[in-house]
Amino acid sequence: MSYQTIIIGAGMAGILAGVKLREKGEDDFVIFEKASDVGGTWRENRYPGLTCDVPAHAYTYSFAPNPEWSALYAGGPEIKAYFQGVVERHGLGRFMQFNSEVTRCAYDETARRWRVTLADGREAQARVLIAASGVLHHPNIPEIDGLDSFEGRAFHSARWDDAAELDGARVGVIGNGSTGVQIVGALSTRSAAVVHFQRSPQWIMPVPYFPYSDEERRAFREDPARIDEIRYGEAYWSGIRRFNKAIVDVNSPEMAEIEAIVLANLEDSVADPILREKLRPNYRAACKRLIYSWNYYEAVQRPSVTVERSGIAHVAPDGVQTRDGTFHRLDAIVLATGFRADRFIRPTTVLGRGGVSLDDVWARRPHAYLAITIPDFPNFFMLNGPGGPVGNFSLIDIAERQWGYIDQLLEHLRRGDCAEICAGRAALADYETRRIAAAKTTVFGSGCTSWYLDSEGVPASWPWSYEAFAEAMSAPKLADFDLRMTPSREPVTA
Ligand code: NAP
Fold first, then answer.
1. Quick check: 313 and 323 in contact, CB under 8 A?
2. From atom 35 of ligand 1, which residue's Cα is the shortest distance away?
């Protein structure tokens, strides 16, 4: 199988890449997807309460507005259906191969092509390789003494066990990120008892939640400008800009405003002073990814819910023993313990020029020039790669801007300006030095644990303003690239 382009992953970013290649009139590409369906994170996550905390009209492709969203914040199944609809409308199905897990990608310097191996032994090759393999993809299974001995159902939030009967049951939820908070909110009215095991509490940003009426949906349908008002309007974007300012400048008025809001939310919403203190974080707001919730504080004040802060000593066959000696008898345990955020395309083996392995290049930390391209991995580009923007905004918007950048690089290949293109070594070294220095000063580095931090405690994120990101994505600086006409190891520019 030989193609111009191989895309890995049929989630949000892979679908985007496919649509954009079609827009350019390209049809010599394939999207390999290891699962049997599209949707990425929205296929993998099926937990009760699953909601995207970015307003639905902003969590859509710019080229596919959706007047039919049911509410300000859309639920998981609805979002997955949206992506399926985009695939159908753009005729992308014929480019997709499911149950096709890519296990190895090796650059053939002589042929100047990526040779790709699939788990079932099939092989394919392409000139361009796009990693759209997701960020939060590999579940983090905690090492908790006795977990294996639990006799009820115990499963990770992204591996939802449909056979687990949670209605009327006693359920333990371990983990307090966006996922755990949403699950507790949903189970609080369904389960007989919910114990929320929190290693560290979270700041909660209060947000409104409301369904869209039939009349509103009709209005969105008849006048798409109403959708644009939400997606591109001042209310949404000034919020993004203020949030971004707060992230990069912890002493800014914008950060003070966020801190005041989340503090007031805690003080005003939680009546019991003992519970309030249990829920009070000892780090700055937005240090961990800020939780946006309209129902969590209400949920934890229901009689069925217990917030457990004393730490898990061990799991027994019939429940969880905490360090203060309390035993919680449980029928099921949900591990909302997050993901291994340093994996990206791995465990797929990726070998660049000279057989250099991505595992070796990333031995210290995953990194890429502008989160997109890596020296000696020619014509290999990542969407939502390492060090890209993270925060409470739409990753679709980020991926679209990244594609705009990648497409300009591809244009050099299409025009024959070069046969190979990737970041130069000096450019990446300089970029990464500046990125790390700036990242340490962001709120993410202000003293908490989170999936944003790498093994050395450096925030793995874009550390500058949103405007700076948009500017960087607007046009590649070719002087930072290694463009080659031949497989020669001498760069034309670097
Ligand atoms: P997460 O934010 O990484 O949270 C993991 C939780 O598990 C934390 O509370 C962590 O505690 C806890 N934990 C991990 N290992 C543990 C252990 N051994 N013992 C006890 N507790 C342990 O994961 P997530 O909630 O799945 O969310 C990940 C990201 O997915 C979010 O930040 C967001 O970007 C995305 N997400 C988005 C939405 C949305 O609405 N857009 C919804 C869900 C998820 P510590 O904090 O103490 O480490």
1. yes
2. 178
